[in-house]
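INPUT
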Amino acid sequence: MSEERSLNFIEEIVEEDIAEGKHGGRVLTRFPPEPNGYLHIGHAKSICLNFGLAKKYNGKTNLRFDDTNPTKEETEYVDSIKEDVKWLGFDWAEELYASDYFDKLYDLAVTLIKKGLAYVDDSTAEEIAAQKGTPTEPGTPNQYRSRSVEENLQLFADMKAGKYQDGDKVLRAKIDLASPNMLLRDPLMYRIKHAHHHRTGDAWCIYPMYDFAHGQSDAIEEITHSICTLEFVSHRPLYDLFIEELEIFPSKQYEFARLNMTYTVMSKRKLMQLVAENHVEGWDDPRMSTISGLRRRGYTAASIREFCDRIGVAKRENMIDFSLLEFCIREDLNKTAWRRMAVLDPIKLIITNYPEGQTETLHGENNPEVEGGDGGRDIPFSNELWIEREDFMEEPPKKFFRLGVGLMVRLKNAYIVKCEDFKKDADGNVTEIYCTYIPESKSGHDTSGINVKGTIHWVSVPHAKTAEVRLYDRLFKVEDPSSEEGDFKEYLNPESLHILPNVYIEPDLANAEQGKGYQFIRKGYFTLDKLSTADKLVFNRTVTLKDGWAVKKS
Ligand code: ATP
Ligand code: MG
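OUTPUT
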């Protein structure tokens, strides 16, 4: 059982609200992605938080697409977001769209105009910015601010009816041009955009701004706890003010620190550039910090949920080490991944005292971490084997517990062999290694009495299948590419993908299943790539067995 952790600050708020009987003790959260890209691991944190809270307090969570910006949003993104949330293991109460509220939002804007709290402004974006003042100087009202309610109602209706071009007019809230909070200096509520919307088509040519859509959508759905990231702290007064003036359901906003992680970028806009400029294979490239990329890489939903749980919910921004995510996936796969053998950099080993042409079937368990081994598989053995080139040395140093003339190792699930000799080609490269085996040393039936320190993996030459194996490294060379000088893409790691076209794998791996993790013994955790076929197997390395970076960096 996992140890009890103390409540995070949002859980404390929810518990207080429930204790006070606020909203009848009801908890309704929402996850509100804008469908303008694929979700990343930062979104996973928000998903785990919103859905996790609801689950813990017998509440519900809505999936609401914040689709108020027609030019950037697409149905492809909506579908991928739904797939990712489901895959992470969460069910939403309702699938909703801010665009479904366009009529209601329009009516709410009319309500504010009628209360004298909104006006149509003909100024350009530049004029509005100039009139807003600075943090130390108040803004100055223009002639449009004093328009009558009737005129504003008419102009707003004309905006909606398509009488104006993009940028001709905006609807602004009439709040306080001298407010120390710049967002309260008559913020925009609506702008004109003659653009096709992925759901409402051409029905609208005016679209609400975030600040006049988000809180109102929360209120329409009667969201009790609207959780967002810290950059919205300064928006909260506006969030509260609109709700109060409109006398709608009093949703409340709470902010937490967004997830930042080393060696990656975490913004849809930046991830989009990597895709558009072909720095990666797509949104689900296994090097991407997207949920679909991590899934393709072999990350499990459980490991991502565990990661989100471990990083917790903070009120201050920080940077999480990518290694923590790797730690979580290693822990999970150690318990679930089936062990198999694959030789990434092969060299041939010949057993001179094993009859040529003879084969035998050995047995290996699927996972020694599981009681009973989680079943097992047959492993064919013969006198010719592939082993890793690095497991042999011409002149082995002391404590090299692998092969070199005179040294002994155990072949995993098979026999102990002793290296007798080797052959080199004209260039001096070792091409073959000759060994003898100890017939009495068969794994599980060893009566040889010989103890060896090393065990190496192998694949029988006549039985081996081949696969392409893709090894990945960090996508960026620096910890925080976004904070470096110049374009973040200058810091891409040119060595982030390494393809091994011809890896020898034990025959049982031809049955590997999509979505399942395999430990290639001594080489890491792997999973089938989505492009893998029966004719051409392709494996992605999810993660190495140990944290190689901890060593490299020091
Ligand atoms: P991006 O800049 O990547 O597009 P966003 O905040 O604009 O991010 P949205 O689709 O608007 O993306 O986000 C949906 C929800 O996910 C929001 O509530 C947002 O606060 C949250 N979220 C986005 N990025 C992170 C992050 N890095 N850590 C935690 N929560 C995040
Ligand atoms: Mg956004």
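end of record. Residues 268-338+467-553 form a domain with the Ribosomal Protein L25; Chain P fold (CATH 2.40.240.10).
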